[in-house]
């Protein structure tokens, strides 16, 4: 794909991010040394935990799936100049909506999945519609409003689960969904399901949309040069609203995939941090949907690998969070430095 | 001879490209020395070498008679050199005084002594006649004041030789005049000014000595008094360039754009367009003259649908278009070359093809059923590069890699081929090289000859004199009067630009400032009804 006009620029990006990764891993090694573990052993365990055998690889891909779909949701927003940090909330509401359709209705197999997914998508879009409206109508900062909406969404779904739809018994979870609403699994030995294929197809479709359609061009222009887009006759508000809605819809879809494919019910805290990991995966991939496939895989591997880490070493799972944070720091420093180089002497930020 | 700056044989190469080749430059103390040349002639490179931002490959530098190696700006500053960059480097959230002392804060007990900074700023501001409010935040200030702050920053660091890189590019004519007066007072104080520009009039107005650069070489260094404007152009461009009035046939087209009693407000919600009425016919160039900021921008924005009007009527070929969205107005035949081309006219980071596509991304042959054909777009852009003589390697170049003049040609190429037969052209040659200016003027005349109706907004009178069939003058949001382009009376235009109503007689024998005398009756306070529109 020739998405970037300057191949040297692309090379520069890749080289810069690779360097950032190396620095982050080196810093991670230092921290591992501080807790008296061998960095080599920890990394080997991580690798084995993530890619050791077919089952482990499937486990990694299982973790990758929601991060990937959430990442695409973030990419869509970023391309249109909208920073949707509320994907976590959209994921929770989408997950709950899909579960509700799954246990409360009885429908024929394929239709059941489609209706559940549709409601997940609608729930995600509806949830982002509120911040989106305030953004385009009154210029409210969408970063703030979508972050705040996350808290409401997670607590709201908890409320639904505990007070309205709780399954009799101990856990804070809804009744299981009917089998007609299950997403088909890919292998017999893992809960890995077609959600992964949905995510990859979505990534490719999104990339193609931005590159090859008139609407994708309009969205890209609104994101990169809003005044120019307005001058050229693009309705900037409408596009901005639409971009957030679609981004939220994809976030809802991620929740639907997670419920119908993995847990087969909605439970409190069913997908901790996938929405945020998705946003970060998209940022690390510089807003490229294809790139997000790889960054999501990386985060998925870290999550999956950390499970074995706790079993085989004295390092705790939290070390993964530390390494993840270091990588984010290093890569965003690289992004910032690059941006500063690009805008020599230009005054783009004004408070 | 007492030289503030003495450069000898400066050569600087970037890869295979030689930006400066054997440049000698001697700047006497106490003069305003202009360095003039087209974009890419090597002016900025030379100044960056002088200021220690770049290292020359060959050559010697002497400041105040001392040979030196300037390997960082700190060395240059210590030797009394100060540079005001073309793009200002101020922190908008800080106050004027904080900006001036940024990096050299006045400290007391380890903390910043804001009161002392404000006092020092006030003293500096008074001493050099650069009026600023030291405790105001920079965020809301105009570019003219921002430039004053930049100059004060340099003065606060005790500069005796001040380099200004294209200082007037962002200023209104009044602000430029104020700046020139300030520079003159610096020189009277024994300071030295090096002034980089590609604007002929300014150079002729303000400098004592002129050095002309072309293709990285010095073409001439002469006292200004021995140079004419025509000569200067020939030295800069390397050939004769004509800015005479373009020959033309009579206008006989029908009215294409009719504006009647149009009102609009500016961003501060103040009335900025007041009862403007005008008509442009097919095959006619109607010029709008006026000092920047007198409602021309608002007029252009209302016409193209980017700014909501308060009241009035705009007809394109007899059809009312006021209040329609920009896309609908475009579809009815208006093409718009915006005045602020870097923000409105292009996406600097997108490719030329992507820039060309704007406004036609959902039209055949560039897209079918919403699917883009980049191949068609690239082919079209390649054709436009050829036809408009755009200096670019190809359609996939990002716009930012082009010079200002070539970016403007990309905008013109897109708008002139968009199919509209009414062209709204705002500042076609602002910041554009002289050679490219001529080509842009040629293209505008070609559009006229093809029967397009052209509304040409320009702050440069010589541009209007060369192109316009009729000229309207705007002042304070009103159209003050009309001047025939064939027999342009610069005096009359100048008075109208200053706000003198041509209908109000001025007694020349009294010698009273006509602006002060005439402005009062010509501009009664707007009636109350205006405020509620």
From TrEMBL, chain A:
Signal peptide: none annotated. It is a multi-pass membrane protein. Keywords: Cell membrane, Membrane, Transmembrane, Transmembrane helix. It is found in: Cell membrane. It comes from Xaviernesmea oryzae. GO terms for molecular function: transmembrane transporter activity. One of its GO terms (cellular component) is plasma membrane. It holds the Pfam family BPD_transp_2. This is ABC transporter permease. The chain crosses the membrane at residues 12-35, 57-78, 90-107, 113-134, 146-165, 192-212, 274-299. Its main location: membrane. InterPro entries: ABC_transp_permease. It comes from the Bacteria.
UniProtKB/TrEMBL annotation, chain B:
One of its GO terms (molecular function) is ATP binding. It comes from the Bacteria. It is found in: Cell membrane. It is a peripheral membrane protein. Residues 507-533 are annotated as: Disordered. Keywords: ATP-binding, Cell membrane, Membrane, Nucleotide-binding, Repeat, Sugar transport, Translocase, Transport. GO terms for cellular component: plasma membrane. InterPro entries: AAA+_ATPase, ABC_carbohydrate_import_ATPase, ABC_transporter-like_ATP-bd, ABC_transporter-like_CS, P-loop_NTPase. Residues 5-240, 257-501 form the ABC transporter domain. Belongs to the ABC transporter superfamily. This is Heme ABC transporter ATP-binding protein.
């Amino acid at each position: 794909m020739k998405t970037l006009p300057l191949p040297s620029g692309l090379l520069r990006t890749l080289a810069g991010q690779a360097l950032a990764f190396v620095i982050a891993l080196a810093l991670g090694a230092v921290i591992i040394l501080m807790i008296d573990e061998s960095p080599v052993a920890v990394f080997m365990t991580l690798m084995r935990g993530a890619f050791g055998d077919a089952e482990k690889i499937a486990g990694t891909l299982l973790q990758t799936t929601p991060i990937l779909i959430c990442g695409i949701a973030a990419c869509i927003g970023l391309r249109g100049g909208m920073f949707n940090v509320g994907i976590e909330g959209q994921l929770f509401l989408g997950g709950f909506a899909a579960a509700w359709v799954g246990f409360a209705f009885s429908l024929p197999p394929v239709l059941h999945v489609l209706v559940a997914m549709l409601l997940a998508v609608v729930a995600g879009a509806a949830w982002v519609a509120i911040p989106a409206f305030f953004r385009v109508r009154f210029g409210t900062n969408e970063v703030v409003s979508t972050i705040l909406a996350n808290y409401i969404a997670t607590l709201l779904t908890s409320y639904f689960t505990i007070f309205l739809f709780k399954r009799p018994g101990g856990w804070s979870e809804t009744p299981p969904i009917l089998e007609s609403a299950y997403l088909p699994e890919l292998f017999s030995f893992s809960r890995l399901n077609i959600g992964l294929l949905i995510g990859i197809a979505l990534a490719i479709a999104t990339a193609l949309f931005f590159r090859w359609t008139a609407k994708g061009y309009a969205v890209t222009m609104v994101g990169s040069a809003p005044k120019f887009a307005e001058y050229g006759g693009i309705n900037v508000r409408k596009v901005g609203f639409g971009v957030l809605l679609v981004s939220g819809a994809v976030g809802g879809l991620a929740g639907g995939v997670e419920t119908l494919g993995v847990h087969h019910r909605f439970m409190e805290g069913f997908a901790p941090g996938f929405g945020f990991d998705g946003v970060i995966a998209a940022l690390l991939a510089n807003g490229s949907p294809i790139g997000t496939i790889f960054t999501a895989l990386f985060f998925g591997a870290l999550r999956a690998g950390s499970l074995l880490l706790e079993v085989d070493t004295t390092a705790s799972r939290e070390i993964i969070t530390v390494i993840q944070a270091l990588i984010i720091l290093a890569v965003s420093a690289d992004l910032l430095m690059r941006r500063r180089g690009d805008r020599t002497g230009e005054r783009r930020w004004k408070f | 001879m007492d030289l503030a700056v003495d450069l000898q044989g400066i050569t600087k190469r970037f890869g295979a490209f030689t930006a400066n080749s054997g440049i000698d430059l001697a700047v006497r103390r106490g003069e305003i020395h202009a360095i003039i040349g087209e974009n890419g002639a090597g002016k900025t490179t030379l100044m960056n070498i002088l200021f220690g931002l770049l290292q020359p490959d060959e050559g010697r530098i002497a400041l105040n008679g001392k040979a030196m190696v300037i390997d960082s700006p700190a060395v240059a500053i210590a030797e009394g050199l100060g540079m005001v960059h073309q793009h200002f480097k101020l922190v908008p959230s800080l106050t004027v005084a904080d900006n001036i002392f940024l990096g050299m804060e006045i400290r007391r007990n380890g903390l910043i002594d804001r009161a002392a900074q404000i006092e020092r700023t006030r003293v500096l501001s008074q001493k050099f006649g650069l009026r600023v409010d030291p405790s105001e935040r920079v965020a809301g200030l105009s570019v003219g004041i921002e430039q004053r702050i930049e100059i004060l920053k340099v003065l606060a660091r005790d500069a005796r030789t001040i380099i200004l890189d294209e200082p007037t590019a962002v200023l209104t004519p009044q602000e430029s005049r104020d700046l020139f007066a300030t520079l003159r007072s610096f020189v009277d104080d024994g300071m030295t000014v090096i002034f980089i520009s590609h604007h002929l009039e300014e150079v002729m107005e303000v400098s004592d000595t002129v050095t002309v650069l072309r293709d990285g070489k010095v073409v001439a260094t002469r006292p200004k008094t021995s140079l004419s404007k025509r000569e200067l152009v020939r030295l800069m461009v390397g050939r004769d360039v004509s800015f005479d009035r373009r020959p033309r046939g009579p206008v006989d087209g029908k009215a294409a754009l009719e504006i009647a009693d149009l009102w609009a407000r500016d961003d501060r919600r103040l009335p900025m367009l007041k009862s403007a009425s005008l008509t442009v016919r097919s095959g006619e160039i109607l010029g709008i003259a006026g000092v920047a900021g007198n409602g021309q921008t608002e007029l252009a924005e209302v016409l193209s649908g980017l700014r909501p009007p308060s009241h009035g009527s705009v007809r394109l070929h007899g059809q009312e278009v006021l209040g329609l969205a920009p896309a609908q107005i475009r579809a009815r035949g208006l093409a718009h070359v915006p005045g602020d081309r870097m923000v409105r006219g292009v996406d600097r980071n997108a490719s030329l093809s992507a820039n060309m596509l704007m406004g036609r991304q959902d039209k055949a042959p560039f897209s079918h059923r919403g699917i883009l054909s980049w191949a068609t777009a690239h082919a079209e852009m390649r054709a436009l590069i050829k036809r408009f003589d755009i200096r670019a390697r190809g359609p996939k170049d990002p716009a930012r890699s082009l010079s200002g003049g070539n970016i403007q040609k990309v905008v013109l190429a897109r708008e002139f081929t968009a199919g509209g037969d009414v062209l709204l052209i705002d500042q076609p040659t602002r910041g554009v090289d002289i050679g490219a200016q001529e080509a842009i003027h040629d293209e505008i005349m070609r559009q006229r000859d093809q029967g397009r109706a052209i509304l040409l907004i320009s702050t440069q009178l010589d541009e209007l004199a060369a192109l316009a069939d009729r000229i309207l003058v705007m002042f304070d949001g009103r159209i003050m009067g009309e001047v025939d382009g064939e027999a342009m009376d610069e005096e009359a235009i100048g008075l109208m630009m200053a706000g003198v109503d041509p209908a109000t007689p001025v007694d020349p024998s009294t010698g009273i400032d006509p602006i002060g005398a005439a402005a009062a009756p010509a501009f009664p306070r707007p009636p109350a009804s205006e405020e509620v529109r």
